[in-house]
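Sharing a chain and its predicted structure for anyone who wants a worked example. Both blocks are below, sequence first, tokens second.
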Amino acid sequence: MSEWDIKKLRILRALRDHGTVTAAAGALSMTPSAVSQQLSNLARQLDVPLLEAQGRRVRLTDAAHLVLRHAEAVFAQLERADAELAAHARGDEGEVRVGAFSTAVPALVVPAVRALRTTRPGVFVRVREAEAAQAYELLAAGEVDLAVSLAAQAPARRDPRFTGVTLFADPLDVALPEGHPLARKRGLRLADLADEPWIFGGSGPWSDITRAACEAAGFVPEQAHSAAGWTAILAMVEAGMGVALVPRMAGAAGHGGVLMRGLGAGRPHRHVLAATRRGAGPAVAHVLAALRAAAPGA
């Protein structure tokens, strides 16, 4: 197989475009003797004559024109490769895998992906729904590039593996059946619900968040029913089986027969975080910026 030398092929193209060895040398900031030497070397590498004398000048042979037809395709492909590499270095292209807990997907990740389609169309986001704690496990294992989780489930901020940022504080609202005596109470406080039956998970982050919020308000919640999914929790609230704390992101879509009430001063929040591995590339930074822009209150 012949040896194709890109640098020498560019010199051959310059000779075709400028007509003389001297003109080609000037365009390439080379000496005429260096141009002649490089073209002689290329002819030996390809084992075909590339130049022939025409009076005091030289002209390209038919073989040289054939070589250049193929070389132009190579040059075009190299230009495309350079452009793609530059875009990749800027973070304008690439795949970013995001692990996020369930309510963050529709409320935060999806709006960020929609925005990126306009601002960074070459960045493809692959979403994986995961429990808040699992998102960090996936990040540490290299299975996702960015984790959206909760402060209660985050590893210590000093963990050298990760760089983390707080996206926003998600208020916790109380879900009441529409006919509940406290449904229209002005200045509703969490402490007003101390004697109510409560619905929350038996374990996991939401159980911890609910218990901690109620205890901070001065009471221990009576767990009447246990459920992990918001559909099941809100269905039981609608049926008058109890009340529940619901993050605003989860309750934003609404649920017939359920009234979502914001709480007054001292209302509890859950803090939503995003984390990446240290040294993550620019495409990951673009996704993180889109998540921050999509966060409520941004």
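Comments welcome. The longest strand covers residues 162-177.
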